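Supplementary Note 2. Why include the ligand at all?

Several targets in our set were suspected to adopt different conformations when bound, so apo predictions alone were not considered sufficient. For every target with a known small-molecule partner we therefore ran a joint prediction. The input for adenosine monophosphate is given below.
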Amino acid sequence: MGAYTAAYERSIADPTRFWGLAARDVRWLVPPDRVLDDGAPPFYRWFTGGELNTCDNALDRHVEEGRGDQPALIYDSPVTGTVRSYTYRELTEIVARFAGALRAQGVDRGDRVVIYLPMVPEAVIAMLACARLGAVHSVVFGGFAAPELAVRIDDARPKAVVSASCGIEAGRVVPYKPLLDRALDLAKHKVERCVIRQREQLHADLVRPRDVEWDEAVAAAEPAECVPAAATDPLYILYTSGTTGRPKGVVRDNGGHAVALRWSMENVFGVGPGDVFWAASDVGWVVGHSYIVYAPLLTGCTTVLYEGKPVGTPDAGAFWRVAAQHRVKALFTAPTAIRAIKKEDPEGALLAGYDLSALDTLFLAGERLDPGTYRWAARVLDRPVIDHWWQTETGWPIAANLRGLEPMPVKPGSPSVPVPGYAVRILGPDGAPLPPGEDGDIALRLPLPPGTLPTLWQDDERFVESYLTKHPGHYLTGDGGHVDEDGYVWVMGRTDDVINVAGHRLSTGTMEEVIASHPAVAECAVIGVEDPLKGQVPRGLVVLKNGVLAEPGEVCAELVAMVRDQVGPVAALKEVTVVPALPKTRSGKILRGVMRGIADGREVSAPSTIEDMTVLDALRPVLRADD
Ligand code: COA
Ligand code: AMP
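The joint prediction is reproduced in token form.
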């Protein structure tokens, strides 16, 4: 039996022993009484009775164990022309000081702190400072607009918000502070304190006494020590898109998270202490939480924080420049970034100028890795290109080619095999397991391994209803697909109304809510259609109210602007079309899946319950207009 099969079987047959052993790589202040607490299904808790501090494991511990002078964080920002490295010792001191500053602003164990920052070191510092205090951070991606930020503020009810004067996007300065001010006006919850990082590109106006400058707050602060947290205490909340417009607050605990991420670095990614790891994502997404911040630091790696794009900062060789300059061993990004590079530099000519001898592997996740992109990257890089599949809820890979444990042959289009701890099952509509090769719901038998979500923030009911009800005893991933005869998982796409735009997870429901609020709109649908660069892009279809006098083109332009203003530029809704009617079932359900299929050029048969076939026929040319 190979190392993978042996480990996988052990993890499923005896999870307590498997994760109990993995937990030895974490520094506990109080060892757990139980590895897996399975007393109240469908809720499971890992490492109950244990106490630790995640920041201690990510920073202080490494300084004490001799890594004080090793770079912990390299900030590489082509958009500001800055490269700055922080050793473990420096980062520990800075984080301790900022934790003291937060405490002085009234933040204590269990309090929430919303972080709305671009890709600057302060984002990492603020996250770790919260962990140090036992406070719970909730990072909101900078590409979301004020109303989305307000919804998250109202759900998390933070004591403080940490933000910056601006971000820098595609050569333009994006003022963050006016967005924050608007969000605070919109939110019902009143935030007592905002700590604002003033960047030299733009100075923000402060609202005293609520707002305090980062430097001011730090100058007056005493360093704070690590506060012991229960293994089961929340470390962070990360909001993610669901089917409805209301985002889901995915909760991450301290203990299971530290154990799982530490284990994943060596076993999945094949990297260990001292290696340089670079996840070219954003701290606002789960990839950024897990693989820019926590996993590399828990492992004693050097992590790279990149404030730039794959192309245009300054060119399509940017990733290779960063990888060469910092001797990156493992690079992790989204397929869309590779497609953007391929489009501008189809032969990979820009690779020639860089010494990539340190780079072992390119890891890709966040959306399906299409075989064309896989083959191109494998050819130009001439090293393993590894797809892996996971989601915000799990926090770390569900299926992967485990480079550290036992590398296996790659099948282009598949993220390979279930990772130890994940009992992947393909279930039919009636819950029955399906044979190899047959598509169904991809579900995970409970209990989920450590590091995965224990619940949704203050909403056990929604957690159960969203994930655990359709197939009792299983977690529903929301993805459909199959497992083949060799045990490889094939993820074919979402089975709900979540779409994936340039590796960004978005809800069509949120966009529909915004569009439906326009006075001229009678009804609408937003669907995700295939896009050669971004994987998917949203497309809006609207039916106008009778008697609307405005030009349809004018209404569509207003709708595009509204979505940008209320959801954010990242929604990337550029196309809205007025149609006479939307196809529905007799019970009134809009046939989004059928429309999506037609737009993507797939053969789709309309359900027998369709109300009026002529409506669908009339839409066909509109949906296929781009061909
Ligand atoms: N703050 C403010 N605006 C932001 C933003 C942020 N943090 N991130 C993105 N935006 C804006 C962009 O500027 C763009 O605005 P525009 O419509 O005025 O051009 C819009 O949101 C859409 O952004 P994006 O989807 O990133 O498209 P793009 O055309 O700017 O870039 C790629 C395309 C492929 C280069 C880019 O999406 C990319 O690097 N993707 C990698 C994906 C990734 O890291 N995913 C995380 C999960 S692994
Ligand atoms: P997020 O929660 O933002 O990480 O998005 C998770 C979703 O992205 C998954 O449910 C999938 O639909 C999709 N996804 C992520 N990685 C992959 C992958 N390697 N292959 C296919 N789909 C993926």
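The first strand starts at residue 34 and ends at 40. The domain at 502-623 is CATH 3.30.300.30 (GMP Synthetase; Chain A, domain 3). Comparable summaries for the other entries are listed in the accompanying table.
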